[in-house]
Amino acid sequence: MKYKAILFDLDGVICNTDQFHYWAWQQIADEIGVHFDENINNRLRGVSRKESLDIILESHSPKLNEAEKEYYLNKKNDLYRGLLKQMSPADLSAEVKETMDRLKSQGILLAIGSSSKNARPILKQLGLENYFHAVSDGTNISRSKPDPEVFLKASEYLAIAPEFCLVVEDAKSGIEAALAAKMDCAAYGNGTSYNLAHYNLEKITDLLPIVLSRN
Ligand code: B16
Ligand code: MG
Fold this sequence. Notes:
There is one protein chain. The protein is of the alpha/beta class and about 220 residues long. Helices cover about 45% and strands about 10% of the residues. The protein has a six-stranded parallel beta sheet with strand order 3-2-1-4-5-6. Helix 6 (about 120-125) links the parallel strand 2 (about 110-115) and strand 3 (about 135). Helix 1 (about 15-30) packs antiparallel against helix 4 (about 65-85) and helix 2 runs antiparallel to helix 3. The relative contact order is 0.19. 1,6-di-O-phosphono-beta-D-glucopyranose (B16) binds near residues 48, 77 and 117.
């Protein structure tokens, strides 16, 4: 068996919360008066909230002090949490759910590997709070992607060695984290533009032949 576990990124793979992050960061950038666009937003994928703000502020002067940064971090999270409230199980695409159900029915273990500290509430909104065999997220790590910690923790929780894990990621930082964890990686969405992963998924169901034909 090549893969015994699939580690799914959350924002941008299981759900489209990446759009909410983008919108909330845009409000913050506008308030600060710093330029923000899609290219900068793509650099924030998989990166922690704090590091995201530092990336947005790269071209800004004068530098913000810690209290000011704290204010904007809290405000961004409040805006983002406000958007999450509108999510429901209807926001989980049938394609994603069917793909995960098929893998599960074949005895493959499924985990979340997300940098987000909001992963648990998001899973609840989607009706997935008890769906995964393990959840590794921003609350159990000290270094976010591209550090491999979040995926190594997931493999530890599942008791499956990294060589048997396949990561599904939309972020450059997430693909790098998977490779640093010595795991295979399937890129999805924005992640396919970097040509760094072992596989590029055009649609999430493309995962099925990759995983099931090698088992
Ligand atoms: P939060 P993922 C990541 O989640 C997002 O891609 C990234 O944009 C965000 O800054 C990070 O979570 C932290 O999220 O502010 O909710 O703690 O893609 O690793 O699932
Ligand atoms: Mg992501």
